[in-house]
């Protein structure tokens, strides 16, 4: 995968076209959320693309925490710092925070390792909805509002012991949902392996809003509508 196809970085300024972000969402991450459609009224660049571009640009450290602060559109111009020490703050043209990255420990810029990590993580992350989240909400007898689903990508933290050569793989390691009123905190955990040996662990954190009692018919329709959108995109 050539991550450079999905963004433009010029004069320390990062930007995305709708086509770049939408193509990454659908054909790399497997994320068919309508807000990533080229013609979406309220278009949003996927957070996983920001993650991917960040580690492709800055490298991977043993300890990293990504905090997503604001939505990014095709009009957003992100200022990329040329120097950093332990924390990277990405801000837009109006000096509004977009994402912060905290990093420590040893680091690598090995292209093969980074590309594999991007591919494995975003493919896992792209399956969050509906595969993991809908099952999780069913277990807790709650669900999102079908008319206005709101799922906010908040943070992703990862620890990696080292960066060995070999075949990188990622395995889902569990999920939890803590619901209070109409809001819920979701944590998705994953383990990283190289040639079968565990080398790291990570947690993706999200907020879901507009929660209501679980309705099997409505939930099935959400999944069916999503799958219909997915099939239409793949066949176009």
Topology record:
Layout: E1 8-10, E2 13-15, H1 18-27, H2 47-58, E3 60-68, E4 78-79, E5 87-92, E6 97-108, H3 111-126, H4 128-139, E7 142-143, E8 150-160, E9 168-180, E10 183-194, E11 197-209, E12 212-213, H5 216-235
Briefly characterize the structure.
With 236 residues, the chain is of the alpha+beta class.
Can you give a write-up of this model?
The chain is an alpha+beta fold and 236 residues long. It has one domain: Porin. The protein is 30% helix and 37% strand. Strand 4 and strand 5 form a beta hairpin. Helix 2 packs antiparallel against helix 3. The longest helix has 20 residues. The mean pLDDT is 95.
Secondary structure: helix percent: 25-40%
Helical run tally: 5
Give the overall average pLDDT. 95
Strand tally is 12
Kindly report the CATH topology: Porin
Molecular shape: globular
Structural class estimated from helices and strands: alpha+beta
Number of domains: 1
Give helix and strand order, one letter per element, not per position.
Answer: EEHHEEEEHHEEEEEEH
Order of strands in the sheet with most strands: 1-2-4-5-6-3-8-11-10-9
User: So what's the CATH class?
Assistant: Mainly Beta
CATH architecture: Beta Barrel
Features:
236 residues; alpha+beta; two-stranded antiparallel ribbon; 30% helix
